Each structure stands twice: as C-alpha cells, then as structure tokens.
Amino acid sequence: MTAFLIILIAALIAVSAWQISKIVSLGKASSGSNGAEAQIANDEDNKRNGQFMLYFGIGIYIMMIACFIAYDDFFLPDAASEHGTEYDSLLFTSTIIIMIVQVLTQGLLHYFSYKYHGKKGQKALFYADNDRLEFIWTAIPVVVLAGLILWGLFSWNDIMDANMDDDPIVVEVYAYQFGWKARYSGADNTLGDANVRFIEGANQLGVDPTDADGQDDVVTTELHLPVDRPVLFKFRSQDVLHSAYFPHFRAQMNVVPGMVTQFKFTPTVTSEEYKSTEFMTEKVSKINEIRRQRSKELEANGDVALDPYEFEYYLLCNKICGASHYNMQMKIVVEEKEDFDAWIAEQKTIGTTLANAEN
Amino acid sequence: MGQAISVSTENAHDDGHHHHKETFVTKYIFSQDHKMIAKQYLITGLIMGAIGIAMSILFRIQLAYPEQPNALFSLFLGERWAEGGVMNPNMYLALVTLHGTIMVFFVLTAGLSGTFSNFLIPLQIGARDMASGFLNMVSYWLFFLSSVIMIASLFVETGPAAAGWTIYPPLSALEEAMPGSGAGMTLWLVSMAIFIASSLLGSLNYVVTVINMRTKGMSMTRLPLTIWAFFVTAIIGVVSFPVLLSAALLLIMDRSFGTSFFLSDIYIKGEVLAHQGGSPVLFEHLFWFLGHPEVYIVLLPALGITSEVIATNSRKPIFGYRAMVASILAIAFLSTIVWGHHMFVSGMNPFLGSVFTFTTLLIAIPSAVKAFNYITTLWKGNLQMNPAMLFSIGLVSTFITGGLTGIILGDSTLDINVHDTYFVVAHFHLVMGISALYGLFAGVYHWFPKMFNRMMDKNLGYAHFWLTAIGAYGVFFPMHFIGMAGLPRRYYTNTNFPYFDDLADTNKLITWFAIFTALAQLFFVYNFVKSIFYGKKAPANPWKSNTLEWTTGDKHIHGNWDGPIPHVYRWAYDYSKVNENGEYVIPGQDYAPQHIPLQDGEEEMNH
User: Could you give the ipTM of this predicted complex?
Assistant: First the structure.
C-alpha cells in the first residue's frame, strides 16, 4: 500500500512537472519580447490557466467523490448512545447541505474562471450592484442556518441537561498524567467528597476518608456501564486539563483541575452487539489484515509481532496534556445489567481498600 | 494611457516633500519609510514562514512513520531531541506548538497584515507616510525582537514551549507537567508580550492614518477594499490583543510569583501545589477573546487583497462594494462575540454554548455574501490570469471549502464529537491557513512591481500556484476524513489505538502531499529572490490598476510622490465602465484610475 501511494504521488509529481515545463516553454515561445510585458499574462496564459481552472474544478469533484468512497469506513459507525442517533442525523443533514453548497459554488467559481478567461478585445461587463441578488444570497443562508441553529440548540439543550430525573448511575471519571480511573458511587449512588489534598497512599483519588458517602465508592481501571441506563459522568482532573472523549457514544467533556464537569448519556448497544455489527466485523478484519502485514515486516527485522485486534469501546484523552498524551486511554465495557451487577460486586469499595491499607 | 499615469496637478496644496539625506542605516535598517518597513516585515515574515513550514514537515514525517528513525530528525533535532534519530514526544509537541505560534502570529499576522497594511495604506489613500513613521519603525523592530526571542527558545535546554499554541494552563504553567513549560514557555510569553506591543503600535498607526490622512476626495466610500480590510483588522487587533497580553501577564504571575489566577487543586509529581481558587476556563476565555478575532485578523487582509486583485484582473468592479464593506464590518463585530465556540466542551455553562452557537452561525452569513460576491465579480469578466489572480481564485476556493465545515464545528451539538480531532485541523488550515497564505502570495505577486520596481517571473508563478493548489487540497481534504474517524490532534503517534491502524496510509498520503507542497514553495523563493535582483524592470502600472499606488512613478522616495499628492475623483473600481454609447469612459482604455476626474457626460454611480 505504501509503495502504491509513493508511486501514485511520484506519478502526480511527474505529471505536474511535465505540465509545468509545458507552460514554461509555451510561455517563453509566445512571449517573444523580452521586456516586462512578457511577465504579464497574455491571451495564451489566460486561456491555458482558464482551462487549468476548469480541470482543477473537475479535479476537486473527483477528489471529493474519491474521498467519500475510499474513506467511507472511516466514518464512525452508528452511535452507541441514545442522543447519538440524533447527533448522527444532524451531522448527516449538515453534511448534505454543505456538500450541495460546495459542489455549486466550486463549480461556478472554476467554470467562470474558465469561461471568462481574458481575450484581447473582450469587454467585461460593468456590473457593480444588484440589490435583489444580494438579498437572495443573504436570505438563503439566513433561512438555512436558522433551521440548523434551532435543531442544534434543541439537541444541545437535551444533551447537556445533566439532571437526576431518570435515575442515572453516577460515575466519576478521574484523569491524571497519563491515565484514567473510574469511581462508582456505590449503593447510595452518591459520590463521596474528594480533593487532591486527600491523596495519600492507597487513596489515589483523594476521596475524603471521613465522608460516609465515599465509603461504598468503588475505584476501577476499566469503565463498565449497564446498557440502557443513563449514566451521569462527573469529571475530575488531578493535574492538568484533559478531555474525556467517547467517540462511539458521541460524547466529550473537558476535565478541568479545580472543578467538576459533567456529561450524561445512555449507552444503548452492548460491547458484544457492537463488535458483531457488519460494519465492525469488516473494519476489524481490515485492521487485522493491516496488522498481519505489518507484523511480517516487524518479524523480518527481528521485532515482536503485533497482537490481533479485537474491538472494545474506549475513552481517550483529547486535550494536549503532556508527553504521553497520545497514549491515555481506558477500556469501556457496555454490558447487560446482570453482568454489570456481578462485575461491580467483585470490586473492592474504598472503605475496604483504605482499611486494608491501614492494617 | 498618458492620462492614466500622469498625476493631476491642479489645486496642489502640498508642494512636495523635502528630502533628507539618507544613510545606509536610515534607509535600510532603521528606516521610517513605510515602504521599507513593509519590505522588512515581508522578508522577516517569509523567513519565519520557512521555519514554520519546515517544522510541520518534521512532525508530519513522524506522523507518517511513527517512532522510526529519520536522518532529518538527527540533523535538525540532534541526539538530545531525537535519540537514535527517533523523535522525542516532547519535541513533537514543541514542534506542533511553535508551528502554530509562528504561522498564526509571525507569518500571517505580522508577515501578511504588517507587510501590506504598511505598504498599501499610505500609497492607496494618498498619504506620504504613516501618521507616525517613528512608531512604525519601533513596531517593526519589536516584531523583529520577538521573532528572535521565539527562535531562541528553540535552543533552550529543556526545550521550547510545547503546550500547544493555545498554551492552556496548568500544562503551560507547571514545569513539572512538561519540560517545555520551563524556560521555553517563559521565552514564549516574553516573545508574545513584545509581539503584542508591536502589533498594537502598528494597528494604532494604521487606524489613525486611515482616518486622518486620506487625500482630498478619498471619502471612506471611495477607499479600496484593501484599505477597508486593513482598517477594520487594525481595529479588531486593538480591541483584542490587549486581552491576550493580560492573559499572558496573569500566566506569568501564576508561573513565577505563586498567584492562582488559573490554577487550583493540583497534585503533580507526588505533591499538592498551594494554588487554590483559580480556573483554567478563565484562561480559555481570555485566550480566545483574542484567539478568535485573530482568525479574522489573519483572514480579512487576505480577503481585502483578494478583492483588489480579483477586481483588477477581472477588469470589472468588485460586485457589491457596499455589501463587501458591510460584510467586513459585520465579520469584525461578530468575531469578537464568538470566541466561546472554541469552548463548547470546556465545562462552561451549556447556556453559553447556545449563545455562542447562535453568534457563530451568524458569522457564516457575511462570509457567504463575500464568497458569492467574488464569484459574481468573475462572471462576464475579462479575466487576466496573472499569478496573483490565480492565488485569489484559489483563495475563494479554499475559503469556501474550509468555511463550510465551520457550519459543523460552530454547532455546539456537532462540535461535541469532532472537537479537537483532525476535522478541526483540516477546517482551520483551509479556511485561515491556506486561504491567508494564498492572500499573502496574491499580494506579493501583485505588488512586487511596486515594491521592488521589477517584475516577478510569471511562469514560475504559475508553477508555484498549481503545485501549491494541488498539494494544499491533497493535504487537507483527506484530513477531514481521518477526523471523522475520531482521530485526536496533537497525538505523537496513533499506533497505541489499533482502531486507527487503517488511517495510517492516509496519514502517509497527507505527509507526502505536505512535502510536495513545501517543495513547491521553492519556486516562489527562487522567483522572489531572483526577481529582486534580476527581474525585468516594471512598468509604472503593470496590471492597469485604478488605485493610487500606481501613480507614484518609479522613483522610490520617502514621501511616495515626487510632486503633489494626487486628488481622488472616483471610487477604485471603474473597470470597463462605459458611457451610454458603449464606449469606455476613457476612450481606448478599460480602466479609469481614481485620480482621473469624471469625464464629460460620465455619471458617478452611487455604489
């Protein structure tokens, strides 16, 4: 694939170089005189560059189509959260509108550049104003944007409304250089108070040991979520800014030292279901093919081969946070309620951990 | 023809300018002549641009071939930052940070706006120089000093600033958080503080000059759109840069004097810091209160240049002059109330997100009007495809492509999942990076004959444009798609997420296009340097343009016009204007420069 890319680019460069040498030689031949006039575009230049503009416009169309086809599977798969479906349809609609405008305006721009390329004796039209035209192309964006704004704002208000009305489980996501931890609020569904000033020994998240609410909290290194139940995330950072980005759930919130930020969403697809979708099986097999190829090269050099990949939801850091920012991730598991209950029951509460540490 | 060039001498109230003897130092170094200062800005900006682009090539190579040794890394970064030729992650972040800082501030603010505001404002409004030549000189030398300090920070032992060009604290405030936040960040802040002082002196000068020093007849509604753009840009700069200065000062205090403006509840390297009660979100507000207008500080001059170049080379008036001015004003006003769209997921109150979505999508309207007006200006024109014209058309193209994705990013809901991904990187590079660079190139190709009295080589210019146009789309269009996959920016390598493995080839493609595009700039460098010394001598008005700068004749003197300053009788866009009988208003030439009085029977249109 790499070889193919390099060949493609080499070919492209060769074609451009050839075209350019053509322009240069034609320019020299046609300019005749050696004075400054030779450096001002003449009819020949106008025509040639006008044609190039047309080709370039067509090239943009081809590039756009090629990208949408070749990169079709780059788009994130269907959202695995309740609000994500709404998000996806808003994104889809916006993209369609954008692409329509893009195709029309780029077409006109490049076509006009070709069509009206300068010729000796051609008279340009003195056309300085037209109120009606300007009104039209002010009004159309106003109407379209008003629609998008309203739709966006309604969704935004729904998504950001982090209330407790639908009985969400409260989970803290805790960020530090360079990793994540999760703190479940336990049976009382209330997180114990916490502050970095309480960090000591086994109490890595700085939970107030005197706060009764914190005793049943559970700290884990993986994020397990029961399917179809709202989760209210509370984000806290120990050191610098981080951003908790859950791409498959269409969720993101910065994690800010000194304050607690929040985001609520309802996961709707379990990890098992998500893995077995057609999109994901294809994507994963493609990725594994790439990894096999890469492993062959690695082994040939005496390096360790790559492990085969199996999809799991992940949370990643999306705000520059230091040297290892690129590797700050946490596995997310969405599972049936029973599985979740069984898993959480196995975890140690903070009360137990701290008591053990003291002994 | 003769009528076009000769300057009207009637009512000469200003009898020339008295020449003072100039030495090498006063002419080329500590010059107070706005034309020389403009050239100093241009050349400094281009050198900074070369450095900024070279940095991007280095980190693009790392992204295409992650953690693989490369001779270029060893050569430029040395053993300390590229052990065994493998780039250090801290150096990667430093390169990303300085690439952003240098390109945004040093190339596109100073190099673009500094060059052309200085060069064109006095020439196009009919003034002998800026309101204060001395402050103008100080402004350049402060800019030069800040450039030197910024470059010097590359050589600090703990490395240059590496917290991203947005330098969000606490990362930028604490040396414990990353080595680049030590001496490197101190130098960054000092350099930027000086840069802001430079920018303010420059901007105040531009504003005063445009308001007070227009020649007789040059009403505000007769100003070329370039001047409108520079004027409004300077106003935004005066409004917003001081806020960045205050942010920088508060950050310096947090770093060095133990205050807590932006810091609170931090545990790092096994210790709790004493800072309490500050908020990084406050810094984000202060930063983006400059940071967003900054986008337009970069872009408006490019759009102004494009307006002028497109009108001249289309041989047509710019379509909708008043709408263009209104759009510039609307963009300028709105630009100061949209900064929150960089902070939708910062943890600020979601209600603010709604407000900023509203204002942000509003700004799409004047932007759309401008794009449509450019396209209409081309319609039924007689397009002269000079290199400057090609770059202007290219600008409109990238401005549209990049601007449209702003509709996705400006919508708080949609921003949630594309925030800080490569989608954003693709968006802003097209809409403000590439577009503004095209504006810069258009300006250089168009006004080079005025600056150096020589012509640039058009064929090299064509080669430069077409290779750059292909390369720029090749770099930034596919980049949207890796962003759509949820690939975060500022990652040293993506190999820790197997999910991104299938994006690796696209990253290689982007890198090769980037190298290709960077090499294409050599056409420009060669052309620029060669033409300064060996270019063909330029005619007085090579593009047959209407604006006043082409009336000075070829003598390069401090004071611009050897004789009296020309007076202005019409707007700048009387291209191909005809009388009722269908003849050009000045028989035999398709343009009527601003200093030519209205002809018999000619009507001044109320534009």
Answer: 0.92
